[in-house]
């Protein structure tokens, strides 16, 4: 809340300074204050957007990394070779039969 009281004091000071000026200078002074406020609002909006974009990019990167790790885990998960349900698998090495049959 300190920033709020400081902002109010700053606006009060600017108002006093501009009120003490002649009419033409007052108009120019308020125009300058308006320009400064618009520029400040644009910077604040841009800073807020960049924070959101950075956060979204970090979340997307984390999701991609999690998907990559899941794919790697699935690719290298061979399971229990004795429980292979493939119809040509008879167990042992080489797959498909006895060593004697493989040598023929």
Order of helices and strands: HHH
Distance between the termini: 88 Å
How many β-strand runs? Answer: 0
* Low-pLDDT residue intervals, each spanning 5 or more residues: none
Structural class: mainly alpha
User: How big a fraction of the residues is strand?
Assistant: under 5%
| Overall geometry | rod-shaped
The mean pLDDT is: 75
What does the radius of gyration come to? 36 Å
The largest pleated sheet is described as: none
Percentage of residues in helical conformation: over 70%
**Number of H- or I-type helical stretches:** 3
Short characterization:
The protein is 74% helix and 0% strand. By secondary structure, it is mainly α.
Question: What would you say this structure looks like, in words?
Answer:
- The protein has three helices and no strands.
- It has 104 residues and is an all-alpha fold.
Keywords:
104 residues, mainly alpha
Layout of helices and strands:
Layout (H helix, E strand, L loop, with lengths): L1 H18 L3 H54 L22 H5 L1
